[in-house]
């Protein structure tokens, strides 16, 4: 039995429609979403739990310190972690970032470590409360806080800062100024969680240097 052959124009129209539907279906295929490769890190203080609480009672006779906002070298004021690859060259790790502004993280760890000292009663963050007296004000400028390659081909954590301690009040005067350079701590160049931990330990040491530079209360 012979089946009727479809007319040529109608057959071509049907083929064209099928092809068009196939093409449209292919265009509507959504590619799978790519996982965000960015990772975020913080500086974690080694201070005892509870240190740094603004509600902690002041120890009688303890130091009352005003901590000015931490100032960063301009190239460090960036969300990406910095790796120094040469004397005059740095690399921003775009997929390895600080989870908070770096100066805020350093100030947080500094305050926690200072409050952990039995000699310190309170640490006020700038802007200072108008109704609270302070014994000394502390200013910190961070020159380096980064990973760095050495001429020998190793990687280290590198932190350097200047510390200025002043009297508090209407007519402050500088009482102490010093440069702090943390000893190089070995880093493998790729574990950025480890780098953040090493830099946090350096900030702990920076806090001890601050305490060492505060003169006795008169």
Topology readout:
Elements (H helix, E strand, L loop, with lengths): L7 H20 L11 E3 L21 E5 L3 E2 L7 E7 L2 E10 L3 H14 L4 E6 L10 E14 L5 E13 L6 E8 L3 E3 L4 H22 L5
Parallel strand pairs: 1-5, 2-6, 2-7, 3-7, 4-7
Antiparallel strand pairs: 4-5, 7-8, 8-9, 8-10
Helix pairs in contact: 2-3
**Beta-strand proportion:** 25-35%
Flag low-confidence runs.
49-55
Mean of residue pLDDT?
85
CATH architecture: 3-Layer(aba) Sandwich
Find the CATH superfamily: ABC-type transport auxiliary lipoprotein component
Give the C-level CATH assignment.
Alpha Beta
The major beta sheet can be summarized as: 10 strands, mixed
Question: H/E series, N to C?
Answer: HEEEEEHEEEEEH
Q: In angstroms, what is the radius of gyration?
A: 30 Å
Total separate domains: 1
Termini separation: 119 Å
Total strands: the figure is 10
Helix content: 25-40%
What is the name of the CATH topology? Rossmann fold
Q: Descriptors for this entry?
A:
Rossmann fold; 26% helix; single chain; elongated; ten-stranded mixed sheet; alpha/beta; 218 residues
């Amino acid at each position: 039995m012979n089946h009727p052959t479809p007319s040529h124009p109608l057959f071509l129209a049907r083929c064209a429609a099928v092809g068009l539907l196939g093409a449209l279906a292919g265009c509507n295929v959504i590619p799978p979403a790519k996982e965000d490769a960015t990772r975020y890190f913080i500086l974690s203080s080694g201070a005892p739990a509870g240190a740094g609480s603004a509600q902690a009672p002041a120890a009688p006779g303890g130091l009352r310190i005003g901590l000015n906002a931490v100032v960063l070298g301009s190239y460090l004021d960036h969300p990406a972690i910095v790796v120094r690859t040469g004397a005059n060259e740095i690399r921003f790790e775009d997929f390895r970032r600080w989870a908070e502004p770096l100066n805020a993280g350093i100030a947080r760890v500094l305050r926690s470590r200072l409050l952990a000292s039995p000699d310190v009663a309170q640490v006020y963050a700038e802007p200072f409360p108008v109704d609270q007296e302070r014994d000394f004000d502390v200013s910190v400028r961070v020159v380096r806080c980064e990973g760095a390659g050495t001429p020998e081909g190793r990687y280290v954590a590198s932190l350097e800062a200047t510390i200025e301690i002043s009297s508090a009040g209407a007519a402050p005067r500088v009482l102490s100024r010093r440069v702090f350079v943390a000893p190089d701590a070995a880093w493998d160049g790729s574990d950025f969680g480890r780098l953040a931990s090493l830099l946090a330990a350096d900030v702990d040491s920076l806090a001890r240097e601050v305490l060492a530079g505060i003169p006795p209360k008169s």
